[in-house]
Amino acid sequence: MAVGDVVRFFGTNPVYRRRVTCHQVLDPELARYGRLDEPLPEVLGAYLTQNGIRLYSHQCEAINALRSGKNVIITTPTASGKTLAFNIPVFAGLVADPDARALYMYPTKALSNDQYATIRTMETFTGIPAKPAIYDGDTPQSKRAAIREHARIVISNPHEIHQVLSWHAKWSPFFSHLKYVVIDEAHRYRGVFGSQIALLIRRLLRVARSYGSDPQFVLSTATLANPEEFAGRLVGRPFMLVDTDGSPHGIRHFVLYNPFFDGIGERSPHQETKDLLLSCVKGDLQTLCFTSSRKMAELVTIWTREDARRTSARLAQGISAYRAGYLPEERRTIERQLKSGEIRGVVSTNALELGIDLGSLDAVIIDGYPGTMMSTRQQAGRAGRKGGESLAVLVAQANPLDQYFMHHPDAFFSRSHEHAIIDTENPYIVSGHLLCAAAELPLREEADAGFFGESFTPLLVELAASSLIKKTPRGWVYAGRGRAADAVRLDGMAAGSFRIMCHGRLLETMDRAQAYREAHEGAIMLHQGETYVVNEMDLETHTVRVSETDVDYYTQPLKEVDLRVIETLETRTINGKKCAFGDVEVTEQYTAYKIKRGDTILGVEPLSLPSLTFRTKAFWLVLPDSSATAVSTAGLDLAGGLHGAEHALIALMPLHVMCDRWDIGGLSIPSYGENGEPTIFVYDGYEGGIGLAEKAFTLLPALFSSTHELVRDCPCQKGCPSCIYSPKCGNDNVPLDKEATVKILCDLCTDPGMHETRKCPAKPEPVAL
Amino acid sequence: MRVRFTFTPHGRSLTVRSPDVLVQMAAMQAESRIGALWQQRMDALREYDVVRDGNVFGAGLAGSCVFSSEYDKARALLDQLLARYDGVAFDTLFSGREITNDSGSCIALESCHDLPATAVDTERLFQEMISDLTLVHGVGEVSERRLKARGYRTITDLAEHPKLRFAARQVLERLTRADPADVMDLIGTRHAKSHPFALGAAGSFESNDYVFLDIETLGLFSRPIILFGVGTIEQGHLMVRQYLLRDICEEAAALTATVEQFSGRRPALVTFNGKAFDLPYVKDRLAYYGIGALSRIPHFDVLHFSRRRWKGQFTSCRLSALESAVLGVARADDVPGQMVPEFYETYLRTQNCGPLVPIVDHNRQDVVSLALLFFYLLGETCGCR
User: Which pTM value belongs to this model?
Assistant: First the structure.
């Protein structure tokens, strides 16, 4: 059977047919080739010819731009040949300047290894001495000096670069001739991590400048709504965008599949995923299935095998799991068997969407929306062999985003909504990098202000007041204890101060907020797929002792949130509702935790933890009296409506601003402030804020209308996990009133000046299939 | 445009203050939290471990550790010093000279020390070296034995060897020219860099060519150097100049002053573990301030020669162990090297000069012991018999 046959089967089989909410078909595209402005060095031309490569239009566009000195961001899809688009100009640059060096930054070890192999092959073929080397925590001490001295392409990761910068003297040949910085998979550097990386790049540029070099940047990312803005913020330079894909593809089917089509969902969506996988494999499609957790990957594999065994033992053997914990040899075996066709179905966690060397397959099944449209596209992009027909299926879960897409497929298939956020002004992030920078080279107010933004000077004064830096005739020098780079961690807001210990072994570190939330006494916590119970939390020594456990219940903390507005920075009026953005101080207090099995509450235990106070950025909206009165007079619960609206707004934030709902917090109060106004707050869950609420504030009308559609179109009666229930609610989803929520959201989307009858847009007719 | 209005906090009332005051207060609080936050985090970084006395296993594993008795003694010393020197002015305690250069100013403390005379017998060393046929490229230990059996006793003899004569003449020429840096290179390519001949190469320097260097720092790399001890030989005496930072902002001046001491005029650097620590550290700080690079000069790291000479004879080859075992020097009120940062930071914080006293003494003694040990080894290698 071919892809078309399986798709037809989905459309005719009575079980599948009802669940397929949308089936999109994309016409095939022929390859579009481009032309280079300048001929390549002969050896590179020969390399392309002998490998039978003709450059696509987007590759030529990127090569031309890079060779003319521009910074470039490439956002074409998976497998469109992005790597070649930057390797060619870098190699050409190495030929043109025999001293030139390049830095390649990769987020993972596996990707670094892949790129190393690619560059080695190119080097061998062309004879251009790139002398590539991986320089990271695993590089043996004995090899380091030679790499610093001789390697012209250094492949590394952000954590290593963070450490390396203070050793710039040893890297002087490298920094003196640094011509290119390649940042692959750059979309990984967003949110808190991205903001840290943005400042790391400022530090890199500052060190390079002191050695007289000013490198060009190439970024490669998945599809984003704001590629130029993102690249500009990450690097602090203007970028040229290359986004028009010239590579060919065949007919593409995308199916949205909703196990909850009836609002109930008889079976678990994972079971349905298993059925789909089996149907695809039986239809002779080589299929890759992405699940949200490692455990689920194993389960889906086992279930599919069991069912397949009824057909044939051979079919059952052709199903395999593929996950991060596997040894390299095991992975290689799976990859080989896939290529030889022995394996027909692979189930993987979506954490492996990158750095997975499986090539392309016929079909991809995505078990649950992976959180971003970007990931969805990357995963779906795995389907489609050279110009062949392909199929991608998204299996919806019972949560608001998944269900929103099922009810609004047009929103799903339209262009990317997600804005990747980078905040280079968070004082908590900037100050840490200022300390590192001061330890690398003395900071000079006039010369360095351009790298560190508006808060540069006030932060210098602040850090000096704490004796962490000192003013000298040669600039501000680092004067704190220890190494600054050791105190500043890139993967969080703060170095985790709580240590999670299991039998004397350090599992991980957490910051205070996370520890209170996930590692309080009695909590059941997950670490790399294993379950642990917290036996003791020592607030004095910041130590949490846990032990392995195997229980069938989970815990959920309950908290009280208090919020104070410190300063209103901006206000706007949307449909007659006052909305504002500004600085707030949030106090969270965990008061108790629930022990639950499924939805059943087994018990509630009190917690006595100190309260947590942090300053962050928030947007808030104030409901006018008239709207509040309308809700109350209709006999509805205002508090329940506000609470529901808060949950739904937070649930749909990730649709517009690239983040996780856990990155954001919210608070709704029927009577806030002096005037007792009904108010909903949505705030960044990080000290100082990281730009999420700020971006959302500019997108409020779109956020309001998508949220309204979500709740209005959910087929449930009184609210459900698909609309207004929140998995992280500190009040255990009480009170909630769905009808009031719809009314409030509708009101938010309606201009009071408009005619009564046109006020609330009704639910659209179901999409014809 | 940014509009400003304030809500009163939920549930509480803050009525009287004007919005601007509130905003200012908030800004101040937010800022002071940042400094405190980082300070807290820095304090959590530990630069050494304190291990139980006799815990050789722990001491061996941890890169940097202090035995608990040593630690307790040093903490007690710190308290005593703070009490003793409370209110004593810097100038009263340290009679130094203020020096000024392009990079600013700092204090130079000078002291003069006796040195036993070491007469170097270069002829004897030369004879020993030319008897070592393995210095010639292509001659290993086996061939040396064979060649000697056939009558080639020295490299001079080998200069007539039908096959080896070119290589031998080259070596002979280099040994005769006796350029210390070149002789060191030659020895280094044929033998271990700590071979006594390499030390012997120093014999052809004049005694006032040497500069002895030892630094005290605020930690292990990328932190300031707070004291530079520089020893030179002047009229047969060891003159120790210590460039001390009264504040971190004087580091660039002290660096410049130190580097002036061993650029050109005095071409031979002598350190203890300086190849791994002092010299790269100084280079790193020079690069940090952008003060120009050091030219390459012959560098004698006494640690390496000592290891070769005394390996296995003493419990450790640390300078403090060697000075007591070989030179019979005993220190009182010493500060363990790893605790120097703590002492200096206490000085910075309290502005009480007491904690500087043992640092300065410690560093001065390090330079003196380094010089004595160097001449001791030099005498053994190429002194007069």
Answer: 0.82
Residues of A in contact with B23 (CB under 8 A): 566-567
State the pLDDT at residue A332.
Answer: 75
Can you tell me the ipTM of this complex? 0.79
CATH assignment of A3-12+249-413, among 3.40.50.300, 3.40.50.880, 2.40.128.120, 3.20.20.120: 3.40.50.300
Lowest mean per-residue pLDDT among A97-101, A463-467, A524-528, B319-323: A524-528
Considering CB atoms only, which of A462, A482, A570 is closest to B42?
A482
Question: Cα A757 from chain centroid?
Answer: 41
Distance in angstroms (rounded) separating the CA atoms of residues B143 and B132: 12
DSSP label at residue A717: S
Angle, alpha carbons A475-A477-A483 (nearest 5°):
155
How far A498 CA sits from the closest chain B CA (Å)? 12
- Could you say which of 3.40.50.300, 3.40.50.10750, 3.40.1190.20, 3.60.21.10 is the CATH number of the domain covering A42-242? 3.40.50.300
Note the helical H segments in chain B: 19-44, 56-61, 68-84, 90-93, 122-130, 141-149, 155-158, 165-177, 180-190, 196-200, 251-261, 278-289, 302-310, 319-322, 340-350, 356-382
Neighbours of A702 (CB within 10 A): 14
Reply yes or no on whether the pLDDT at A133 is more than 70.
yes
Do B306 and B330 touch, CB atoms closer than 8 A?
Answer: no
The per-residue pLDDT for range A145-175, each reduced to its tens digit, is: 999 999 999 999 999 999 999 999 999 999 9
Distance between alpha carbon A425 and the CA centroid of its chain, in Å?
20
Q: What is the mean pLDDT of residues B150-164?
A: 91
The closest CB to that of A483, out of B222, B283, B289, belongs to B222
In this structure, what token pair is assigned to residue A684?
């960044």
- Using DSSP's 3-state secondary structure scheme, residue A621 falls into strand
Q: What are phi and psi of A623, to 5 degrees?
A: -85, 130
* Chain B residue at shortest CA distance from A459: B31
C-alpha torsion sign, points A594, A597, A598, A599: negative
Contact with chain B for residue A428, Cβ under 8 A: yes
CA-CA distance, B219 to B93, in Å (whole number)? 25
In CATH, what is the architecture of B81-113+204-382?
2-Layer Sandwich (3.30)
Tell which of A174, A452, A472 to mutate to test the B interface (max B CBs under 10 Å).
A472
pLDDT in tens, B57-112: 544 443 467 778 888 888 899 999 999 999 899 888 898 899 999 888 999 999 99
> What CATH fold (topology level) applies to the domain A427-487?
Arc Repressor Mutant, subunit A (1.10.10)
Domain-by-domain residue ranges, chain A?
3-12+249-413, 42-242, 427-487, 498-551, 560-758
Confidence (pLDDT) at A449: 93
Q: Does A686 touch chain B (CB under 8 A)?
A: no
Residue ranges per domain, chain B? Answer: 81-113+204-382
Domains A3-12+249-413 and A42-242 share a fold: yes
Of A52, A53, A4, A55, nearest to A28 (Cα)? A4
Asked if B2 reaches chain A (Cβ–Cβ under 8 Å), the answer is yes
